[in-house]
Amino acid sequence: MKKYHNIVDDLLDEDNQYPIALYGDDDQKIEFEKIFVMFSKDDGKLYCILKPIDPFEDLKEDEALVFRVDDMEAKDPLFTIEDNDDIADKVFDEYYKKVDE
Questions:
Q1: Which of 6, 39, 49, 89 has its CB 3.0 to 4.6 Å from that of 35, i.e. a possible disulfide?
Q2: pTM score, whole prediction
């Protein structure tokens, strides 16, 4: 029997160097490099900065996206691109703080 695997475990594993594979609305597999992961002190949600390995439309090669992870314990957690600019900016600010340490 195949063991259940939650992608959030890979996301939270600091030693994981493998791509994070997500699937778009059309079930197309998109692989991302994990840049940063954090739990928000404001809302307790998990956020991550992911950079597509293969750039796609409307995203420059050096750009990354902020995702909010919902239903973390579910078999298929929901990764949603964070469209609230204030929240996305806070996630990037936390990333820059960590990089500057």
A1: 49
A2: 0.87
